[in-house]
Amino acid sequence: MPQTIQGEVSKDILTGIATTSLIFAISAYMPIFSFLSLFIPLPILFYRSKLGRKTGSIVPVASAIVMLVMFGGISLGILFYVKLLLLGFVLGELIELDISIEKTVGYACATVLLAGCVGLLLYNNISGTNIATLVSEYIAKVIDLMIELLRTMEAPEENIHTISRIREDIHFFIIRFIPAYIIASTLFEAWISLLVARPVLKSRNLFYPDFGSLNLWKAPEFLVWGVIGCGLTLLFSDPFFKIFGLSGLLILMVIYFFQGVAIVSFYFEKKRFPRVLRFFLYSLVILQPMVMMLLVVGLGFFDMWTDFRKLETQKKE
């Protein structure tokens, strides 16, 4: 390899490691910017596409080592960031296959989640630590910190007393919602990574699949029955059925959120909204998640019947 090209490759590797480590440091040590962790897969995906599989794999591996050093060893927190590194690399692999966006997101999430399960089993056997116990203790500490934070903020004593009284119930439900939360968050991270990667890769003349116009995307219609089924399980008094139903609804809400955003994007483009206004309205979804995100999810879900974009009418014509 010519010295000039080798120098460029080395520079790209160092830039990728530095960029990823910087995003990690800001999101990990400055809680107000924790949302930046969503962008950790982006540099991994970019340098995998630019440098290829063998050379590009150096960036996530070296970044993981930097994270371990900064965290002072393996912990539950570091596993979240390693998952994002793996997600970025897997997406880079799948992009080259030029498959549909559903398969790209689905295969990426399945690979990352399977690798996570294998990694946890290996860690459990090697360290002799019970992962379930470790997670349970971690959640208990988080709840205690939340109660202490409320006291520091001088919240009403009755609110603190109520949370303390139902502390065990909160712990019980959080522990059982973790699998659904991990699946839902991985879906969301993969979707965000693909959206952000498109302009970045195309600006550098790197390959990006033609997924078509994503603002016309619709969730498969059979998922409506999944929502109905999960909703019906909430009628049972058994906690198992309630947890199963709510877990399913959480995952399905993410999918319908994608469809809701596609509808919003469709009308932004149709009405030619200025970029500044689009940015402001998209920011509202992040700043007011409970209200705006539920509204967007509702748009996606009821689009099955109302067909906001008149897609079925266009097909018939």
UniProtKB/TrEMBL annotation:
Pfam families in the record: DUF2232
Residue spans crossing the bilayer: 22-46, 58-84, 104-123, 173-197, 217-236, 243-268, 280-302
Keywords attached to this entry: Membrane, Transmembrane, Transmembrane helix
Source superkingdom: Bacteria
Record bears the keyword RNA-binding: no
Keyword set includes Ribonucleoprotein: no
InterPro entries: DUF2232 (IPR018710)
PANTHER family hit by this protein: DUF2232 DOMAIN-CONTAINING PROTEIN, MEMBRANE PROTEIN-RELATED
Protein name: DUF2232
